[in-house]
Specification:
Strand content: over 45%
CATH architecture of the largest domain: Beta Barrel
Structural class: mainly beta
Order of helices and strands: HHEEEEEEEEEEEEEEE
CATH topology of the largest domain: Porin
Number of helices: 2
Length: 273
């Protein structure tokens, strides 16, 4: 029965729409490029260091030097946005110091939601197999909690759909729950980098091929990474990239289907103590 998809798609391939193609990896590479460019800007644009100006009177001023006149003066901006100017004659030395992240500033968990693109890969995107096009994925529940500085648990409750560019066939749709270890690293005072390998289940719906749609439950795995940008004491923004894989067996139609996708998401989360 799997060949029913191929037959219907083969007919469509000779239509005018076929010239546009169902899935073009070269077009979708731009999503990955944009995503990792944003990550690079956020991660490396923020510094783990601050300037420390030691004055001859014993005071130490810490912040960011925003202006320096050689052999004359420096202007430094402190964490509270106040700005001070010091003459060279007042300064004993200037150094760089690591910004220590206070334990009270780092919260142990988060719960939020995210939305993004679901990009099919492999035979799931093959026009003579899964024929899936770029779709959408939503994580209605996106949660994580750290038991120690770097290790915890994470989970998602998700749903996704990948359309097929054929008018009379509904999209592929699937969703479920997954859990796994959370491995977290504070990159800067404001950014945490999480790794999240997860396993769970997915309920997948086969599009109606003329004999009705069919659902199947299968084991699902996910390997992903998340950058959490802590914009306030309570709120974080989430930027994520995940590889998802499941293989439902559709008994009535007599075949199984590899569903493999790369999802790029953006979300918001509430920070837990």
């Amino acid at each position: 029965m799997k060949y029913l998809i191929s037959i219907k798609i083969s007919k469509w391939l000779f239509t005018k729409q076929a010239s546009r193609g169902i899935f073009n990896w070269n077009n979708n590479k731009k999503y990955l490029t944009i995503f990792f460019s944003i990550i690079a800007i956020i991660s490396f644009g923020q510094s783990n260091y601050q300037d420390a100006v030691y004055l001859k009177n014993g005071s130490v001023i810490r912040g960011v030097i925003i202006e320096q006149v050689p052999n004359k003066s420096i202007k430094i901006e402190m964490a509270d946005k106040s700005v001070f100017v010091y003459q060279i004659e007042e300064i004993e030395k200037i150094t760089k110091e690591t910004i220590e992240i206070k334990k009270s500033e780092r919260r142990k968990g988060f719960i939020g939601l995210s939305l993004g693109a679901s990009i099919p890969t492999g035979i799931f995107a093959d026009e003579l197999d899964g024929a899936a096009n770029t779709g959408i994925q939503i994580n209605l529940v996106n949660v994580g909690y750290l038991f120690s500085k770097n290790v915890g648990i994470t989970g998602v409750w998700f749903g996704a759909a990948n359309p097929i560019n054929i008018d009379f066939i509904d999209p592929w749709s699937y969703g479920g729950m997954m859990v796994g270890p959370l491995i977290s690293f504070p990159i800067t005072k404001k950014v945490d980098w999480d790794l999240r390998p997860m396993v769970g289940y997915s309920v997948s719906t086969l599009p109606d091929l003329g004999y009705g749609s069919e659902q199947a439950i299968s084991i699902a795995i996910n390997i992903g990474t998340v950058f959490r940008i802590n914009v306030s004491k309570r709120i974080s923004l989430l930027l994520s990239a995940d590889f998802f894989s499941t293989k439902p067996d559709f008994v009535e139609y007599g075949f199984d289907q590899n569903i493999n996708t790369i999802s790029l998401g953006f979300g918001v989360a509430y920070r837990l103590k």
